Structures are given as C-alpha cells and as structure tokens.
C-alpha cells in the first residue's frame, strides 16, 4: 500500500534522530465474555474499544457492554457495585447499580480521578475507589463516586481537563467547565456542531466537529480552519496540536494545518508523540511511526505481535511503553536502545570453533558437547573448543548423555558413543526397523537409549532393541524429537502431533482429541510440572489432563527452528531470520544482530539451569564476480555476508560463509 509522508523538522524540534532499536512486546488478549452481569471464560478480559484510559501501570479503565471495568495486570474488577453521591445533594443522596453501563466517553485527570459518561449521566470516580476490587463495595464509607445531575450541557461526547484543575465537557450545544464547586456553560459559535473531540493545551480549549477545529480561550472562540476530511481525533502533545482525519494526520503550526501522513487509506484513530517519533494509530492499517528525518516505520500484524491492525487507541505509561488498544486485545510496545553486551559471542573470544551450525547440545563431563552439521563433535570446557576427529562422521543429528558421562551421537547411518577418549561405532544394519535417517537420540533415567527416526521410535535397554511404529501404538512413523519428563514419561513429536509413553503404552495427541493444533512443533519443555510445546504460532501447555494455549502469546515474528525453556520459566525460540526470541508473562524480547548475534538466523537454542546458549549463523553457496564480492546474486540474507573463506577460480568466488557463532545470553 502506498502512502504519502510529509514531515517538517521545524514543527517537531523536540524530536531527536531515530536510533537503532530493539523491541519488547507485552500482549494482553481477551478471552472473557460478559453476559448477564458476569464474566465467563479463561484468560484475561482486556479492553478492545476506543473508550479506554490508563489509570496505572498495566491498569486500564474501559467500557464493556456492561459496567465500567478495570484490568489491573490480570485482575478484573467492575464498577457495577460502586456507590455514588448525587450532585447537587438530594434527600436520597446515594445511588448504585447500573450507573456505569454503556460508556460513551472516558477521561482520567492528573489526580487519577476518572470521569466518564454513561447511559445514566455524567460521573466521576476518585482513584481510591477503583484502585482495587475490594473497594468496589456498597459498605464503603467516605470513598464514593459522584453522579452529576446539574451539568448544564446535554448529550456529552467528550471530556478533557486544563492546568487549573477544571474539567471540561463538550455537549450538543456548547462546552462546560467544572471547578469542583460549580459549572459554567459556553455556547458554540453558530457554525460549530456535532463536536466529537475536546482537548486542552493547558490554557486554551480546542474542539473539533465535522471538518472544523475551533479554539476557546475562556472568553472568545477562534476558528483554526480545516485540515480536510472529517476529523476523527485531536491531540495536544507538548504544546503542538495534532489532528486525525478519515485519511491522514496533520499538525497545526504557524497558523495552518500541515500534513504529517496522508494517503494511508485508513481513518486515523489516535496520535501520540515522544522524544523520538510521532505515532499514528489507524482503523485498518496498524501503527505508523514517523521519525524527524522523514523516514517511517509501520507496525502491522504481518510483521509484529500486534493483535490487530484495527488500532482503537494509543496509550503511554510512565515507562514510555506504548499500549496499542486493538479490536483483538492490547499490545504493550517498548523500544530499547541496542546493547551488544546482551549477547556474548563465545566463538569470537576463543579458538577452535569450526564455523558450522550446532544442531544439538548436552552438558556432561563438566563441558558442553555440541553435535554440528559438518564438523562432527565439538566440545567447549569454558576456555577453548575441541574438535573430535576420531569419529568418521562429520554430521550429527542428535546428542545425549547418560548418568556416567557417556556421550551418544546419532547420524543417518550409525550411533556413536564417546566414553573418556574412546569412540565406539554401533552399526545398525541388522536393525531393519530403524530408518537410515535418525533424527534424535535420548537416554532416559534408566539408561535406556531411544532413537527417533522415519520408521518410528526404537529403544535399547542394554540387551535388546524394541521398536514402536503405527502398528504398535504410534500415530505416525515419522518422529523428529524426543523428550523425557520428570515423571519418566517419554514424549515424541511426529508428523501427527505429540505422543507420550508411560513405560507400558503410548497415548497420542492431535487436534482431534487435544482441542489445539499440534502441527509443525519445534520442541518440548517442562516447567512447574507442565509440558509445553510450540510451533511459533501458539504456546501450548499440558497439565496432565488437558491442553490449553497461553492467551497472552502472540505468533512469533518469523519461522521457528527450535523451542525450549529455561529453569526460570522463560520460553525461547530460535528463528530463521528474526534472531532469538524470549517469551515470559506476555512479554516478548527479541535478540538480533544489533545485540551481537553473528546473524539473525538462529538454528538451535539450549539451556542449562539459568544459562541460555544459541547457535547463530548463515551459510550459502553462490557464484559471483569479484566486482560483486559480498553482495551475492543469490544471497537473500538482509545483511551481506562476511567472506571468511574464499576459493578463487576463473576470477570468481564460488563459496562464502557469513560468520557463524556460538552465543551465550547474559
């Protein structure tokens, strides 16, 4: 989609140049439904409409089809039982129940007081009333909201406040101010009608309706002209007036409206500006981030964890986290200045690393043992790497270790063991039930060896082999991954989903009986007694009885190569081109080349207690002339690879490697 960007630096002199950025996402997705006065469902009900304000860290007040509701970092409360005193005072001064239904406008002032319009009238609610669910009780004394029955304007459409502590409302025929004691009314000019927005720059009041914006200085009205198009929102940000319309965003400076972003073919719903950029939320095109140098970035569902491109509102908390309220939930977005110390590239500080992909790893004999794609077995003792050349194989698919420190390495043809300095090769030619393509190896707590291959699963108990396939309990013969849990169950990933072996029989799980999609899974992990797995599309957990998905998890941005978890309950994803991703409690953290990764392609991630390691790199074959060295006609990687090894034949480079690396997350 094409759009026009017009940005004048003189109008936003407070903005600095855009910096390289790293992002952290917090996803709050709705799964509660409201019917008959109660919430039902699993997960967290979060705001999904434009009628929402931020009233604390990760705390929102928002409109539902029922009472005004609050989301406080996972805790849900309602205002349906809140007590309100009536203003002006009447004989019956307390009313409650149903006062906060059908919210049409919300505003929170500098003292944390919440002001809102409902189907029953105009209300305010002090911070101490809504600060916890326990206070929303009819037994409260001295902690009540106020129901204003003396507002001089009708059909209130918008609320704001000024620097003098006054609250302003826009109604059908004019605006009105309230100083805590009395109301004052100010009629609109004759040509102003259908006001939808009101905002203050601290001293003056601005209202917008139709295609017009007017300013009120407390005495006189001044027309500010029209930016063009129906006005959807106005915002005052650091003294600059911004306006959103049905097809763009504008700022008011030097007595005229100047376009910021136009031809986006979507209605502007919200505008915010900070030290680095102007942020524009839209009805169907996601979020635009506009930098002082004229460049722009676009955040959409297709390139980020944003729940929906229908962005109702942009809110900002004290940590400068942007909260994008969408029709499918809320996403917290925070930019972090890149810090190369977040990832330590171990292979750059030592010698002997073979510059190949690490396919799997196991910690045994006080060292890391790595199976690689083309360098055989490589070990790392914390000081240096060692490549073991005694094994005739150079490509290992899986690696495991038993309690005595014996290493098991699987190839497409053989099973190797390494005990001390002695290699032993197990030929499997007489085992017709074992495929020539062994995908993984595991040693269980009984010392039994398990092989995953394309004919099923095979187990060796020290004396004899036992084979499992579709005829003996599996749902698929193509098995790619093995995992042993704390209860000695053996789990496998196959083309059909998950299977669990309890020592006697297999139990198979797929979409039909699990209720979740169990396809293209990239690993299995255990935390707090639960089994977790993921393809990158969802985080799936099994509590021993049923499967469920984490509602705060949003699809990983990029294809996933591997999934695991660490001892702290962080879930890790190695991706094809988006680097290393950590997920915990709804927060996504991305590690990429800005943090020191050799490449944004991460092949594998593996953990030991609190340690997290990853294999990063990219290797391609290409043929190019010297004049294009480093560009690569067939190179699709975003960053041109560094030439580490070259073979020059007839003035051409035939092979190049982007630097490989073994990294440790700090």
Explain the overall architecture.
- An 8-stranded antiparallel sheet has the order 31-32-33-2-58-57-56-55, with no helix packed on it. Strands 10-9-14-13-12-11 form a 6-stranded mixed sheet.
- The protein is an all-beta fold and 666 residues long.
- It has a domain of 334 residues: YVTN repeat-like/Quinoprotein amine dehydrogenase (Methylamine Dehydrogenase, Chain H, 7 Propeller), CATH 2.130.10.
- The longest helix is centred in the first third of the chain and has 4 residues.
- The chain contains 2 helices and 62 strands.
What is the CATH C-level name of the domain at 4-337? Answer: Mainly Beta
Integer-rounded radius of gyration: 31 Å
Q: Biggest β-sheet, characterized?
A: 8 strands, antiparallel
Per CATH, the superfamily of the domain at 4-337 is YVTN repeat-like/Quinoprotein amine dehydrogenase
Level of helix content?
under 10%
Count of DSSP H/I helices: 2
Number of strands: 62
Distance between the termini: 40 Å
Q: Based on Cα principal axes, name the global outline.
A: elongated
CATH architecture of the domain at 4-337: 7 Propeller
Mean pLDDT: 78
Assess the beta-strand content as a share of residues: over 45%
**Helix/strand/pairing category:** mainly beta
Write the CATH fold name of the domain at 4-337: Methylamine Dehydrogenase, Chain H
Strands of the widest sheet, in order across it, are 31-32-33-2-58-57-56-55
Q: State the low-pLDDT regions, or none.
A: 1-20, 31-44, 91-96, 133-141, 619-658
Architecture blueprint of SSEs:
Blueprint: E1 4-5, E2 22-28, E3 33-35, E4 38-40, E5 52-56, E6 59-62, E7 69-72, E8 75-78, E9 83-87, E10 94-96, E11 105-108, E12 114-118, E13 121-125, H1 127-130, E14 145-148, E15 158-161, E16 167-170, E17 174-178, E18 183-187, E19 195-200, E20 205-209, E21 212-216, E22 221-223, E23 231-237, E24 240-245, E25 248-253, E26 256-262, E27 268-273, E28 278-282, E29 287-290, E30 296-299, E31 311-316, E32 322-326, E33 329-336, E34 343-345, E35 358-364, E36 367-372, E37 377-380, E38 385-388, E39 398-401, E40 407-410, E41 414-419, E42 422-427, E43 438-443, E44 449-453, E45 456-460, E46 465-468, E47 479-484, E48 490-494, E49 497-501, E50 506-509, H2 511-514, E51 524-527, E52 530-534, E53 539-542, E54 547-549, E55 560-565, E56 571-575, E57 580-584, E58 587-591, E59 602-608, E60 611-625, E61 648-649, E62 652-665
Parallel strand pairs: 9-14
Antiparallel strand pairs: 1-26, 2-33, 2-58, 3-4, 5-6, 6-7, 7-8, 9-10, 11-12, 12-13, 13-14, 15-16, 16-17, 17-18, 19-20, 20-21, 21-22, 23-24, 24-25, 25-26, 27-28, 28-29, 29-30, 31-32, 32-33, 34-62, 35-36, 36-37, 37-38, 39-40, 40-41, 41-42, 43-44, 44-45, 45-46, 47-48, 48-49, 49-50, 51-52, 52-53, ...
């Amino acid at each position: 989609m094409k759009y026009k960007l017009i940005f004048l630096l003189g109008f936003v002199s407070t903005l600095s140049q855009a910096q390289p950025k790293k992002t952290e996402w917090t996803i709050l997705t709705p799964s509660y439904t409201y019917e008959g006065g109660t919430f039902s469902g699993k997960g967290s009900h979060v705001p999904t409409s434009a009628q929402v304000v931020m009233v604390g860290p990760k705390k929102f007040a928002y409109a539902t089809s029922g009472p005004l509701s609050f989301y406080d970092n996972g805790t849900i409360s309602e205002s349906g039982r809140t007590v309100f005193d009536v203003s002006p005072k009447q004989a019956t001064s307390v009313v409650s129940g149903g006062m906060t239904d059908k919210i049409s406008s919300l505003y929170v002032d500098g003292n944390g007081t919440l002001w809102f319009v409902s189907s029953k009238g105009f209300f305010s609610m002090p911070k101490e009333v809504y600060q916890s669910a326990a206070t929303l009780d009819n037994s409260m004394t001295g902690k009540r909201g106020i129901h204003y029955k003396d507002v001089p304007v009708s059909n209130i459409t918008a609320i704001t406040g000024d620097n003098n502590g006054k609250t302003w409302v826009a109604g059908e025929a004019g605006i009105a101010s309230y100083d805590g004691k009395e109301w004052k009314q100010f009629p609109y000019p004759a040509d102003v009608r259908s006001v939808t927005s009101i905002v203050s720059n601290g001293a003056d009041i601005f209202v917008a309706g139709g295609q017009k914006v007017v300013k009120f200085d407390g005495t006189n009205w001044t027309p500010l002209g029209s930016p063009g198009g129906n006005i959807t929102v106005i915002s005052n940000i650091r003294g600059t007036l911004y306006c959103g319309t049905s097809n763009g965003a504008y700022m008011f400076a030097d007595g005229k409206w100047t376009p910021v972003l136009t031809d986006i073919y979507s209605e502007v719903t919200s505008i915010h500006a900070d030290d680095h950029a102007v942020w524009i939320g839209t009805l169907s095109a996601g979020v635009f981030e506009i930098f002082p140098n004229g460049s722009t970035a676009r955040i959409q569902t297709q390139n980020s964890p944003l729940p929906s491109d229908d962005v109702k509102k942009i809110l900002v908390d004290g940590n400068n986290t942007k909260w994008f309220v969408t029709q499918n939930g809320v996403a917290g977005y925070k930019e972090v200045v890149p810090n190369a110390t977040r990832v330590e590239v171990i292979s750059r500080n030592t010698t002997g690393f073979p510059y190949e992909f690490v396919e799997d790893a196991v910690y045994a004999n006080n060292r890391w043992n790595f199976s690689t794609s083309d360098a055989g077995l490589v070990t790392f003792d914390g000081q240096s790497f060692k490549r073991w050349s005694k094994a005739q194989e150079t490509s290992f698919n899986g690696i495991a270790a038993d309690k005595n420190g014996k290493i098991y390495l699987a190839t497409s043809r053989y099973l190797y063991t390494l005990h001390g300095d002695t290699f032993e090769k197990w030929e499997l030619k007489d085992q017709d039930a074992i495929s020539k393509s062994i995908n993984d190896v595991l040693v269980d707590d009984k010392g039994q060896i398990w092989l995953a291959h394309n004919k099923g699963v095979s187990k060796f108990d020290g004396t004899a082999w036992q084979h499992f396939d579709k005829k003996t309990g599996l749902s698929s013969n193509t098995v790619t991954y093995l995992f042993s849990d704390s209860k000695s169950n053996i789990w496998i990933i196959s083309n059909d989903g998950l299977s669990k072996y309890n020592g006697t029989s297999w139990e198979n799980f797929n979409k039909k009986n699990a209720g979740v999609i169990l396809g293209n899974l990239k690993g299995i992990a255990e935390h707090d007694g639960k089994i977790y797995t993921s393809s990158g599309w969802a985080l799936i957990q099994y509590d021993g009885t049923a499967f469920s998905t984490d509602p705060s998890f949003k699809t990983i941005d990029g294809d996933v190569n591997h999934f695991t978890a660490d001892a702290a309950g962080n879930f890790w994803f190695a991706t094809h081109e988006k680097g290393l991703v950590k997920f915990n409690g709804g927060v996504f953290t991305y590690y990429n080349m800005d943090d020191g990764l050799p490449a944004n392609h991460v092949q594998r991630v593996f953990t030991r207690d609190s340690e997290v390691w990853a294999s990063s790199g990219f290797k391609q074959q290409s043929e190019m002339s010297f004049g294009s060295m480093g560009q690569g006609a067939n190179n699709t990687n975003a960053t041109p690879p560094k030439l580490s090894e070259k073979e020059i034949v007839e003035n051409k480079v035939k092979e190049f490697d982007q630097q490989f690396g073994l990294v440790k997350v700090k």
